[in-house]
Amino acid sequence: MPNAARATHTLTRKTLPDASSINGNQQISKSDALKLTPEEEMAHFVNQSRMVTCSHPDHPEVRLKWRNPKNAIISETKGRVHIEDKGDSLALIFEAIARTDQGNWTCEVDVEGTATATEGRVTVPALRKSFKMIVYEPISFRDTNTVQTAVEDKDATIRCEVKGHPEPSVSWYFNGQPLFFSNNGRYSKLADGMSIKKVVQNDSGEYTCKAFQISATGSSFEEKTIRLNIKHKPYMPPWKKSISDAYGYVGGMVNLTCEATAEPPANFSWSANNKKLTPKSHIIYNGRHVSMLQIMIKTSSIFGKYKCEAKNELGSVTQEIHLKEGTKPDPPSLFQLRGVNSDTLDIDVGATKSHDIPPDPTTVIGYRFELMPTDEYLKSRSWDHASRRDFDVADGATYLLVQLIPDTKYLIRVAARNAAGLSDWTEVKEFSTHPVQPHGTSGSSAQPTDVCFKFVWLLAVAFPAALSITHHRFADLTKGRF
Known about the structure:
Helix content is 9%, strand content 44%. By secondary structure, it is mainly β. It folds into four domains: 35-113 and 126-137, Immunoglobulins (Immunoglobulin-like); 143-233, Immunoglobulin-like, CATH 2.60.40.10; 236-325, Immunoglobulin-like (Sandwich), CATH 2.60.40.10; 336-353 and 360-433, Sandwich (Immunoglobulin-like). Strands 3, 5, 6, 9, 11 and 14 form a six-stranded mixed β-sheet that branches. A hairpin with a 5-residue loop joins β5 (64-67) and β6. The longest helix is centred in the C-terminal third of the chain and has 15 residues, at 446-460. The radius of gyration is 43 Å and the shape is elongated. One of its GO terms (biological process) is synapse organization.
């Protein structure tokens, strides 16, 4: 409670003039009324400001005072809620409205103060006038992180604490579809969010908490989207076997890949003959959900079993790969140009595929093309920056090298591929793309040829192979399926 000096200063008023006295007594009529400005009842939001003045139009000299909803007198002249003497009125100031300010605020004549100021016998009725403060709190989300986590096979709580007055109604959506809550269902609505029983990986995704608020002055809507990540132990892809075979040949190189999805991502480690392989002694590339061990096969002692372990805080999984000795394939015996236009070269390498005999480690399963503009090769005399195109075997197919530069000479070489790796490269050949033909040129065969090439390519060429991936292609692996 503020000191008396402050209160006395605030309530100073002019004394009643003697000319208005009757036999030494000052009388204020009961019919006189206090006036509040503004008079209308208004709704306010939290943290807004407001000023209401109270006056007695017929007797501006009387003293006034304000009471809060708890009937306590407001005497502070500074602060969030205070009073200010305006001379002929007393103002109630709200610098920042709070939810606790809701209720009836009352202005009344300070009978004792008025009597003291007039220094005479005064009869003052207890005049009062009130206004109701209505306080709305807009929708807000408290302690609501946009990314939240849960653990697989355990109950999860998604926090979305919605505040507001009037109290908002809340609904939930999962990946854009509404969620329905029932007593026996997996989903339950909580005061500060929602819960899911025994979450699985399919429960990961975007959950949207939508809040709707209706008041006497209107309505408002807000929403918050939360990404739920499900933490789980590592899993090998379902198409991978626990033990798989790989092939290589002495003098060649082989890449052993180990894939495991996990949240958080797993740490990978490799071992052979119960001995851990380290990056100091071996070439190991690690991605978010994949690891690749690159082995240079210098002697036959390299062949054997290799083990990969993927581990995170929730568990681990292992994969064993048996590296077996295979046979280096022969290079393609045929390498010739079958067609050309401005951006495509059609190459025939004599591809054949047996439909009767199951493939064995020696069977050619694909081809690798390397190409680069002749001018670029002459600058470096190196194939390090050549464009690489991998194709699977398709019986009787020719292979289209597309998206080439018009009117450009290209150097091209090809290698066959089997389970053990790549053959030696063929001799390098030079082929040229055609210049771009002006649109509508009569007699031009460029456009029909282009259509034919693309039709053949779509029918005959299978998806690019994923085997024999070198360190140049490892980034593609990490960006692909995982």
